[in-house]
């Protein structure tokens, strides 16, 4: 914007300069015309009088004093003629100089007009980019809020489901998952996409709570039970896609989400490391991955602390 102001300021200066030069040029052309009139009359007079006119005047003097007066008169006439020609030459040079200055001022005006137009387009383009960025940012904020709300709602629904399933759980004999804390094999091997717990989103200055972890894994990878237990639920839950919930006794549960395929059934007893499904991307906003969650007494717990 500052650059545009400078261009407009230079444009105004050159406009004023051109107006002033135009006025001066008009006056100079009038002066040249008058000088030409005077020179024309003088040249015609000299032509009529002939080349020997000064000699005739000198020799027609009646006395020496008259001769001196005539010589002085001739000097003044010659000085006048010289001044007429010099004034004409000066006026002509000044006219040409003003014409050049006028052309230069016009060139500057065109230059600054083009620069100002280009800068206006640039500023308009930047405004549009900023507008598009803000629009995109608002959409992302709305999406972030919606995802956060969906995550909270999905978590509530999962709590209700686990609470209902706890009454149906039958603990297997000898199951003691607590003794295996920190040494359980993960359901799949892959990189973590998300961490457990409450995380601050710097971009939107808000917090997102994750009750589990997302593990990056290709679709169709075998998903294994982390410990012995009983399949309490198989089905679909909004926000989790196809899920399996396994009860491991002592009110511990594990959940496997975003599955592409479920290879077990509700009520079936499973062993540690047994394949229970295939990974996929159902209900996932992160693409192909496995959502894994652990709960104790219906409350989410840090799953990575239990895995080897």
TrEMBL record:
PANTHER family: L-ALA--D-GLU ENDOPEPTIDASE, PEPTIDASE-RELATED. The keyword Signal applies. It holds the Pfam family Peptidase_M23. One of its GO terms (molecular function) is metalloendopeptidase activity. Residues 27-98 form the Peptidoglycan hydrolase PcsB coiled-coil domain. The keyword Transmembrane does not apply. Residues 210-303 form the M23ase beta-sheet core domain. This is Uncharacterized protein. CDD domains: M23_peptidase (cd12797). Keywords: Coiled coil, Signal. Residues 130-164 form a coiled coil. Signal peptide: none annotated.
């Amino acid at each position: 914007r500052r650059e545009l102001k400078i261009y407009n300021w230079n444009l105004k200066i050159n406009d004023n300069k051109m107006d002033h030069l135009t006025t001066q040029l008009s006056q100079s052309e009038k002066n040249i015309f008058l000088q030409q009139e005077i020179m024309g009359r003088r040249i015609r007079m000299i032509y009529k009088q002939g080349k020997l006119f000064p000699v005739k005047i000198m020799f027609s003097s009646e006395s020496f004093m008259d001769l001196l007066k005539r010589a002085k008169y001739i000097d003044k006439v010659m000085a006048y003629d010289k001044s007429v020609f010099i004034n004409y030459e000066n006026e002509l040079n000044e006219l040409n100089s003003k014409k050049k200055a006028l052309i230069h001022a016009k060139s500057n005006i065109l230059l600054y007009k083009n620069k100002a137009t280009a800068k206006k387009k640039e500023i308009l383009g930047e405004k549009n980019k900023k507008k598009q960025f803000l629009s995109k940012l608002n959409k992302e904020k709305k999406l972030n809020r919606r995802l956060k709300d969906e995550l909270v709602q999905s978590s509530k629904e999962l709590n209700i489901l686990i609470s209902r399933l706890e009454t149906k759980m039958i603990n297997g004999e000898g199951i003691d998952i607590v003794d295996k804390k920190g040494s359980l094999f993960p359901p799949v091997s892959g990189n973590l996409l998300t961490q457990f717990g409450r995380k601050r989103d710097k971009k939107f200055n808000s917090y997102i709570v994750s009750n589990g972890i997302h593990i990056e894994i290709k679709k169709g990878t075998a998903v294994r039970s982390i410990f012995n237990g009983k399949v309490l639920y198989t089905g679909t839950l909004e926000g989790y896609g196809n899920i399996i919930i396994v009860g491991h006794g002592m009110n511990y549960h594990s959940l496997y989400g975003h599955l592409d395929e479920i290879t077990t059934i509700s009520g079936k007893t499973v062993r540690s490391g047994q394949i229970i499904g295939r990974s996929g991307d159902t209900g996932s906003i992160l693409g192909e991955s496995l959502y894994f969650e652990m709960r104790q007494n219906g409350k989410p717990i840090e799953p990575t602390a239990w895995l080897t």
